[in-house]
């Protein structure tokens, strides 16, 4: 199956899938701001097979977000293939992505995510199961970490296996499972993987600016990059990166007023989406997102203390108005 977003030497910017973050609303925002490829939050194959409504909600995306893939996890190739078929029956994604990278304990404990990096036979059977089930309908891709821990960095071997089992793109987070999100991403290993296989490799880890994108494009063999945590604080990173790649210049920083407009708009869109429930439930679910948006703001600490208690859109608007008024008086 073709992957047109890599055609003509394109270097796509992916929005990394992040549980509880990259919902349908945030993906829409990042798409507007220049993200090229979307991946949904990961979903359990077993939840899909049971047709659990909550699980199914995580697979939703809009046509405006295409190309968009649905990411699944699990440890049984046959069941994973069955789940992938059900997803395609619901709504045709542009690809199915397999999560071999999640470090979270509750996923690892179910023999999913990065736990499979310790058992290449199972990893191969899962990849094969999904590719055989749906590979004639949509591309099947995979996301991994560079290894379980520093003593077992095996990403090049894993990439060879995944290519053999039919994966058409491999995204690699340059940290081990043991690292979590600590320390620096190892781009030397990502580069080695990209040179090991013929399918496109997308690098992930510590991409925060256009300079970072340019550096990895010029110094490694990756075919694209994936931006995760930096987009949580600064979804404009995609627009900024494209501007830098085109002009070699940094765009003007996004004004604090524009950032607040986006914060309020994000809250409004989340309420309209009905993803999290009523207004109170939605704004409470958004609290951590609001605090992340405000990292780096002048007076961020007391601001975050206020935002961690809001429970209505009006409260968020009041906080914004008071903050901007105080900023003007400084």
Q: Structural class, from helix and strand content? A: alpha/beta
Low-pLDDT residue intervals, each spanning 5 or more residues = none
SS element count, helices? 15
Radius of gyration: 20 Å
Largest sheet: 9 strands, parallel
**What's the shape?**
globular
Number of beta-strand segments = 9
The SSE order reads EHEEHHEHEHHEHEHEHEHHHHHH
Strand content: 5-15%
Fraction in helix: 40-55%
List keywords for this structure.
9 strands; alpha/beta; single chain; globular; 330 residues; 9-stranded parallel sheet
Write the layout of secondary structure elements.
Layout: E1 13-15, H1 24-32, E2 38-39, E3 43-44, H2 45-49, H3 53-57, E4 68-73, H4 77-90, E5 95-100, H5 105-108, H6 120-134, E6 140-147, H7 155-164, E7 170-176, H8 187-196, E8 201-204, H9 210-219, E9 224-227, H10 229-233, H11 237-247, H12 256-273, H13 279-293, H14 300-307, H15 313-329
Parallel strand pairs: 1-9, 2-4, 3-4, 4-5, 5-6, 6-7, 7-8, 8-9
Structure write-up:
The protein is of the alpha/beta class. The chain has helices at residues 24-32, 45-49, 53-57, 77-90, 105-108, 120-134, 155-164, 187-196, 210-219, 229-233, 237-247, 256-273, 279-293, 300-307, 313-329; strands spanning 13-15, 38-39, 43-44, 68-73, 95-100, 140-147, 170-176, 201-204, 224-227.
């Amino acid at each position: 199956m073709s992957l047109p977003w890599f055609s003509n030497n394109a270097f796509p910017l992916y929005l990394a899938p992040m549980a509880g973050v990259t919902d349908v609303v945030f993906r829409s925002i990042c798409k507007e701001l220049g993200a090229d490829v979307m991946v949904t939050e990961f979903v359990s194959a077993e939840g899909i097979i049971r047709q659990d409504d909550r699980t199914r909600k995580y697979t939703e995306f809009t046509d405006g977000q295409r190309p968009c893939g649905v990411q699944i996890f699990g440890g049984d190739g046959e069941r994973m293939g069955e789940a992938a078929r059900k997803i395609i029956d619901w709504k045709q994604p542009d690809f199915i992505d397999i999560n071999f990278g999640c470090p979270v304990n509750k996923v690892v404990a179910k023999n999913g995510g990065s736990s499979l990096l310790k058992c290449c036979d199972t990893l191969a059977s899962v990849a094969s199961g999904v590719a055989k089930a749906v590979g004639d309908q949509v591309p099947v891709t995979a996301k991994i970490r560079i290894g379980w821990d520093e003593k077992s960095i095996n990403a090049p071997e894993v990439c060879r296996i995944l290519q053999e089992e039919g994966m058409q793109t491999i995204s690699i987070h340059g940290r081990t499972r043991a690292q979590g999100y600590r320390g620096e991403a190892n781009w030397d290993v990502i580069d080695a993987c990209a040179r090991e296989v013929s399918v496109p490799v997308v690098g992930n880890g510590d991409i925060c600016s256009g300079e970072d994108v340019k550096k990895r494009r010029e110094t490694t063999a990756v075919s694209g990059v994936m931006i995760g945590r930096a987009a949580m604080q600064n979804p404009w990173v995609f627009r900024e990166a494209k501007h830098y790649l085109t002009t070699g210049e940094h765009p003007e920083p996004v004004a604090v007023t524009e950032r607040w407009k986006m914060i309020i708009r994000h809250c409004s869109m989340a309420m309209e989406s009905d993803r999290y429930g009523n207004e109170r439930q939605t704004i409470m679910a958004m609290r951590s997102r609001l605090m992340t948006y405000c990292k780096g703001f002048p007076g961020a600490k007391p601001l975050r203390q206020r935002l961690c208690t809001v429970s209505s859109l009006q409260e968020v608007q009041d906080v914004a108005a008071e903050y901007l008024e105080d900023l003007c008086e400084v």
